[in-house]
Design a protein that fits this description.
This protein has 315 residues and is of the alpha/beta class. 41% of the residues lie in helices and 20% in strands. The chain is built from ten helices and 14 strands. The strands form four sheets. A six-stranded parallel β-sheet has the order 3-2-1-4-5-6, sandwiched between helices. A three-stranded antiparallel β-sheet has the order 7-10-11. Strands 12-13-14 form a three-stranded antiparallel β-sheet. The protein is globular, with a radius of gyration of 19 Å.
Length: 315
């Protein structure tokens, strides 16, 4: 064992999402080093200073500083949250052209400094920008991951937990597909604790399928509601990114619905999309292929088609 080795995470983008991630990282004591990079260098410096002042209250010491792309050479993980944010009324997919251009430049600078770790992408449209990162970096597909539908799945679990009045951590349910308007819930595999959701619906007359559909619609449209009220979403995605980071750095082999490259799974290839995958220190160990019912298959196929159509002009 190499006792001198420390985990270095580089965060590119110190906007609201990036800073929520950095703040959660420090509060959970996930890595030994956290480097902040931003096109606005003074902003990155200020954020590093502010975060460092809370270090006496952190569960473990983390060295935080504002850095440059040169710090990427020995990084284990690079998290990209940089890019233009979604405006009120704007879909994630409408951001594609602007953010693709920004990403190509960022990834080129990172790779020019000899980076050989794992990329974690959060900027929207996340599935397409994860694909762009993979193409531009030349890294193996397993080492380029998008935040996918991890947050959407968390929103679904929260909604179901509230509906059934159980701890959201005991709800097992997934959203898959595009992180956006064509995502879908996998109701056929959802469970509350040890009991299948479909069995619960059959047993209890007061539980209605319409209520589940309402829960899903609230999940799908959550970003629009939040953006309308406070301008942006950042706490939930920040914590989601920390969850993925822990799975990677701690070699957990955890199952999370990240944006993964499909190479024949679900009957599709050459696309990044949110599906359950096993995550460890090497990135994506394996994409899990769920046995979807006919309706879910149709919805997933549509999600893939929309992504491919949207990314065509920019790839």
């Amino acid at each position: 064992m190499n006792y001198g080795k420390v985990n270095r995470v580089v965060l590119v983008g110190t906007g609201a999402v990036g800073c929520s991630y950095a703040y959660s990282m420090i509060n959970q004591g996930v890595a030994e080093e956290l480097v902040l990079i931003d096109v606005n260098e003074a902003k990155a410096e200020g954020e590093a200073m502010d975060l460092n002042h809370g270090m006496p209250f952190a569960p473990s010491p983390i060295k935080v500083w504002s850095g440059t792309y040169q710090d990427c050479e020995t990084a284990d993980l690079i998290v990209i949250t940089a890019g233009l944010a979604q405006k009120p009324g704007e879909t994630r997919l409408q951001l594609v052209e602007k953010n693709t251009k920004i990403f190509k430049d960022i990834v080129k600078n990172i790779m020019a400094n000899g980076f050989n770790g794992i990329f974690l992408v959060a900027t929207n449209p996340v599935d397409i920008l994860t694909y762009v990162t993979w193409k531009e970096s030349g890294l193996p597909k397993e080492r380029v991951i998008g935040s996918g539908t991890v947050l959407d799945s968390a929103r679904l679990r929260f909604g179901l937990g509230k509906y059934f009045n159980v701890d959201t951590r005991n709800v097992h349910a997934y959203i898959i597909g595009e992180h956006g308007d064509t995502e879908l819930p996998v109701w056929s595999k959802a469970s509350i604790g040890v009991e299948q959701l479909e069995s619960l619906l059959a047993e209890k007359n007061e539980l209605k399928k319409e209520s589940l559909e309402d829960i899903f619609i609230n999940v799908r449209d959550a970003a629009y509601h939040i953006i309308e009220r406070k301008g942006a979403t950042f706490y939930g995605i920040g914590m989601s990114l920390v969850r993925i980071t822990k799975a990677i750095l701690n070699n957990e082999n955890s199952i999370l619905t990240v944006s993964s490259y499909l190479d024949g799974q679900y009957g599709h290839e050459d696309v990044y999309i949110g599906v359950p995958a096993i995550i460890n220190r090497n990135g994506i160990r394996e994409v899990i292929e769920i046995d979807l019912n006919e309706k879910e298959k149709e919805q997933f196929d549509r999600s893939v088609a929309v992504l491919k159509e949207t990314m065509q002009p920019v790839i």
